[in-house]
Amino acid sequence: MLGYRCCSDFDSIPEREFEDLLAGRTDRVFDAYVNIGSLETQIRVLTQRYPRAKYIMMDDVDKSADRHDPAILTALEGANLLRLRRERTSTWRDLCEYLKLAPPNGQYPSVNDIGLRTCQPVSKMVAPARRLRHDPSPWIAKLRVDWRGISASALEGQESLGALRVCFEDDLAQIQSARWLLRNDTFPGNLGLFRPANVTPAPAGGLSLAVIEEPLGVRNLSAAAISSRASFLFGRFEATLQATNVPGLVTGFFLHRDSPRQEIDVEILGNRPDHLLVNVFYNPGTNGAKFDYGYRGTPIIIELGFDASKALHQYTIEWDPCEIRWFVDRKLVHRRAIWDPTPIPHLPMTLHVNTWPTASRELAGRLALRALPAPAIVRRVAVDTYDPDSPGQPATAKPKPPVKALSSTDKSASFY
Fold first, then answer.
1. Which residues pair with 43 in a beta bridge?
2. Which pLDDT tens digit goes with each residue over 103-139?
3. Strands, E, within 166-261: which ranges?
4. DSSP strand pairing (221-232 vs 192-194)
5. In this structure, is the dihedral angle defined by the CA atoms of residues 83, 86, 88 and 92, taken in order, positive or negative?
6. Distances (CA, A) of 127 to 130, 303, 319, 325, 334
7. What's the CATH architecture for 129-152+158-385?
8. Is the pLDDT of residue 204 over 50?
9. Which residues pair with 201 in a beta bridge?
10. pLDDT tens digits for 72-93?
11. Cβ neighbours of residue 140 under 8 Å, at least 6 residues apart?
């Protein structure tokens, strides 16, 4: 539900979080726990520690069958409990009446269980990095010195990234219209209007993405962007780039979607091209959900050790259901686990490369108009992934049986 930080689908939660929950400490990270196997034996403690908490259990369709553990039901006697029957989960009514919330505008989601995940050793910063100011959002966990999110193993039902098929590797010698879209729009915070004419062949190969000062009516600057026509869900995404070093400009390589907005960024800022900004925007929901919290996201600035505007370098995003990893010249520079500080984006996104002038001096400095026109160079883009829009699995993928989640009918409850 809107506004809840929800830890879900884990067989256990990190030890420190578990201890804080049972001790009743107020600096807990999560507001809700859903299908957490390790909490089954602690329900009596939880009802005593949190007398105002809400508990939701999913009942079986067969009214004559009750597969809940009697000990759990006994422990929940007197608690604020909703027993939600599966045939009543197609609408918001019962849940919203119980939580005393107005029903959302969106349709009740119909999604498959993702299965239980296993906690792994906590991921840590790889290269020197600094967190920047982020948005106040329900989906961003508050920073704690000892908190690094939840590092989890990939699901058994997901294809391993090692078995990905190569969708394409493009040297961009020619723009393939079936693969790439040259943008002619803009977005809030962009001082320029993307124009296809600003995407031109670079002298040494690849494409030049230029920012130019010119009157366009709605804008006085033009910018350049290419976007994939296809959407992708998880995989490895690489670009060979030479960024611009003009203050006020941003060179970007990223994945993005709207409704709900989710995004994974690589950005090089014109006023400090010896740093890399990586960012994640997360909003919950299924396709079409109107969640769009935040314009800053959760940015991290990383020292590169070189000037990215002086030569071409390779930038890589590896995105899987449990973690995001960023590489520069094949060297791992940063990684994020689940809730570090957001969940991992989970919906298909399109791929973008652009150069644009930002309205935010805080982000990339004051725009140096006298240095325009200014190009960034993209020489190569490679994508290893599955196409979620494809009607079937790729030939290399062998479907596996779905993982059975530990649902409430398997002796688990949801805790709010």
1. none
2. 877 778 777 777 788 888 776 667 888 999 998 898 9
3. 166-170, 180-182, 192-194, 199-201, 207-213, 221-232, 235-242, 249-257
4. parallel
5. positive
6. 10, 7, 18, 12, 6
7. Sandwich (2.60)
8. yes
9. 207
10. 888 999 999 998 887 767 788 8
11. 134, 282, 294, 298, 341, 342
Structure tokens at 103: 């029903």
Compute the distance between CA of residue 75 and CA of residue 53 in angstroms, rounded to an integer.
Answer: 14
| Cα dihedral value 265, 268, 271, 274, nearest 10 | 130
Q: Per DSSP, what are the bridge partners of residue 193?
A: 222
**Secondary structure of residue 58 in the 3-state scheme:** strand
Which amino acid belongs to residue 130? R
How many other CB atoms are found less than 10 A from the CB of residue 104? 16
* Rounded distance between C-alpha atoms, residue 253 and residue 226, angstroms: 10
pTM, two decimal places: 0.87
Cα separation, 328 vs 303, in Å, equals 11
Give the span between the Cα atoms of 103 and 164, in whole angstroms.
40
Long-range own/partner contacts, residues 386-394 (CB < 8 A, 24 or more apart): 386/159, 386/164, 386/165, 386/167, 386/232, 386/233, 386/234, 386/235, 387/167, 387/230, 387/231, 387/232, 388/231, 388/232, 388/233, 388/348, 389/230, 389/231, 389/348, 394/165
Please name the helix (run of DSSP H) or strand (run of DSSP E) that holds residue 16, with its range, or none.
helix 15-23
In this structure, the number of other CB atoms found within 10 A of the CB of residue 197 comes to 11
Residue ranges of domains in the chain: 6-118+406-415, 129-152+158-385
